[in-house]
Amino acid sequence: MADPTGPSGPEEDPSQPNGPGDSDARIIQTDLRNEMSRSYLEYAMSVIVGRALPDARDGLKPVHRRILYAMYELGLTSDRPYRKCARVVGEVLGKYHPHGDTAVYDALVRMAQDFNMRMPLVDGHGNFGSVDGDPPAAMRYTESRLQALTTDALLEDIEAETVDFVDNFDGSQQEPTVMPARIPQLLLNGSTGIAVGMATNIPPHNLGELIDGLLALIANPELSDRELTSLIPGPDFPTGGQILGRRGIREMFSTGRGSVTMRGVASIETLEVKGRPDRDAVIITELPFQTNKAALIERIAELVNDKKLEGISDIRDESDRDGMRIVIELRRDAYPQVVLNNLFKLTPLQNNFSAYMLALVKGEPVLLSLRRMLEVFLDFRVETIERRTRYLLRKAEERDHILLGLLIALDNLDAIIALIRAAADTATARMQLTEQFGLSEVQADAILQMQLRRLTALEADKIRLEHEDLLAKITDYKDILARRERVFGLITEELQTIRSRYASPRRTEILDLEAGLEDIDLIANERSVVLLTENGYLKRMPVSEFEATSRGTRGKAGTRSQGEEAVKLFISCNDHDSLLLFSNRGVVYSLPAYRVPLCSRAAKGTPIVQLLPIPREEAITSLLSVSAFDDDVQLLMLTSGGYVKRTPLSAFANIRSNGLIAISLEEGDDLRWVRLALRGDSVLIGSRNGMTIHFRISDEELRPLGRTARGVRAMQLRPGDQLVSMDVLPAELADQVALAGGDEAEADGEGTDDVSGGEGPWVLVASATGLGKRVPVDQFRLQKRAGMGLRAMKFRRDGDELVGLKVLGAGEELLLVSERGVIVRMQADAIPQQSRAATGVRLQRLDTGDRLAEVVLVPPAPEESEEEGGEASPVEAATVPADGGSDASEDRDAAAD
Predict the structure, then answer these.
(1) Is-cis flag, bond preceding 221, omega within 30?
(2) What is the pLDDT of residues 351-407, one digit of tens each?
(3) What is the pLDDT of residue 562?
(4) Which residue among the candidates 105, 141, 356, 391 is catalytic per the annotation?
(5) Which residue ranges form the domains of the chain, and what is each CATH number?
(6) pTM for the model
(7) Which of 571, 473, 536, 524 is nearest to 817 (CA)?
(8) Which long-range contacts (CB under 8 A, 24 or more apart) does 477-486 make?
(9) Catalytic residue check, 141
């Protein structure tokens, strides 16, 4: 459709005033792109300067400035009664801010909320909202007035020509362009705003710390950033909470942008029921800045219902007038610290404050560092004090000028009185005064307006004293304007006065740790067993899956398909440990224990190639759990060819994803066993035929070697024999053996009854048929490396062989696993003590064709300590009979060869 006003529209009547000629003269041809760009830029700058961004000098946006000035004009100071907020909003709308009343009231409400403002500028009376996100009451119900800090630190001297005033929107009123702030309000309460193409987000800080920083900067303008941040350590949020780490703060202060990790304050308490401890609970007493409490509780409940947050049985909000208190009750089987870490990870109880300190400097948006913000404020204070001083100087000079005229009148009192009485009118009197006495018109008017009572002698003295006082003030004002150090002295005095009146302690604690929660923080450090099958499937199961049983019982299946999935390796560990997996080719791989999928006993497990990049030609031959890579801990490695080597554990602290060489091997040799040891410990090595050798881990016997070294000969083997096991004895046990001298005679099997007495330590000796015994450790005397060794066990049946040696202490627990994955958990104290020559007793009842594969020790509970008097865990409280029921007669028969 054609535009009727365009070229194809109807022609206009030339006789009309707005004919074609006049219309063409008013049409301006312009490029649409340029017009859109110019118009949008004007709109953007209007939003940036007039609405969204604060001024770096007083830290206020126009709406806040107009609200505070309107309340000041209404006389709503802190010592006056409250007035309805609707009255304030109407005043602001009618005089200064021609926008919606909702915008004005929302800004007024925020300045009164103590959970949003570190130092509220408005004193609100009534419902001004809550940290739960509840809206404030309507403006007709609420009342407000200015805080004392606002009057003293933001509005003081506003009438002393310290700042510029401009016309309001209709030219009927004057409003200030900036407040004569005496404190860096922009940093004190922070600011948030979204403009066009830019935004600002400045966190609040502590008033006392800001003043300390300003005073230090005044005293030493070359103050280093480190010294400045020691005085202003970081944000101080009104809701308290914690800040994790200082890296984000340093970045924010130095560049103007950075991310600060905030965390609520939560503790773990034990709730009591009828005066007795009942269960643990997480108690939240402080929230991160701008976190909605009701939304937080709702989020926690949602995660609990979705099974994403476990261990929580109930949530209650017990907050009252005395403070915040959110109670999160935990189940009795929950780990409180793990639940708390998951709350930090999954809920707003921990979040980030993304700071972007953008503010207007000379009408332009500028990204400011901490130092630059303080410098801009100090420059503004210098300008403000100089303008105030010039104003006071001008007023003093004007007043002194009048006093000089009055003094002239007092000196010529009779003549002036006669002149005034003789004058026809006021104008004539004024003219004659200026002509005869050399007075100015201002002085002449002052004389004409002077009251008769001021002609007394007392009043004349007052005039002279006031004149002298003004002369002193004028001199002082001129000195202030002449010397910059006087200006900074006044700034210092004002800051110290404000600090003494309004400074408050810091609410937010800054923790010297960096923010991130690792996956390990969300995992309970439980005791587990890790099992690797011959087909390369790895699985992790809780130790609690296997209850302590009597010696000689069958146990529980630890794998799904016993006939196909023979167990190859089996260790016990804590879930926070690092697993070191050693291959037959001498390469070590690392995997956190908690990353091994947790499976049920019937599950098959996860192929190890899905967890680690292990080549097909390699096979894992040893598993080891490490809690810390200490320098004084050694890795003791033994190959199937009989070579042994020790290397510092710290050499394996950083293992690449594709592995690290642990030992160099000869052709045909394999790395089979790896253990942890300390300098001075001793090592006990066993062979298939039941021979053992025991020697010191010392520089004389076994000096430390690098990762790529081969090692030295460990034991001389008889033909057809091979190494099967290795364990380490602590140094104190090795010393005990050295003092005892050991058993020098090689037992031949005669008289091998149980060894009585002793509290340990012992060496557990186990055979493939499920037989085993505890032998006092002092029966394994210390020898030289590379010898033949001593016999550790005689076998009852042909084809039996040694499968494991373990050093035991009193009260230890064992896990025995067969090749088909049947696992037995038992107390080591239930195993009888026997000599080296005995054949042992039944440890595990094995199915036909099954064999004992491995024996491991259950690690102590990581969070339990007997010294603390804690209650024993269900595992530690389990008791095991000394004999194994129907196997008792068989055990008695096994006491002799």
Answers:
(1) no
(2) 999 999 999 999 899 999 999 999 999 999 999 999 999 999 999 999 999 999 888
(3) 45
(4) 141
(5) 41-204 (3.90.199.10), 265-348 (3.30.1360.40), 376-501 (1.10.268.10), 525-863+887-893 (2.120.10.90)
(6) 0.66
(7) 571
(8) 477/389, 477/390, 477/392, 477/393, 477/396, 478/393, 480/385, 480/386, 480/389, 481/386, 481/389, 481/390, 481/393, 484/382
(9) yes
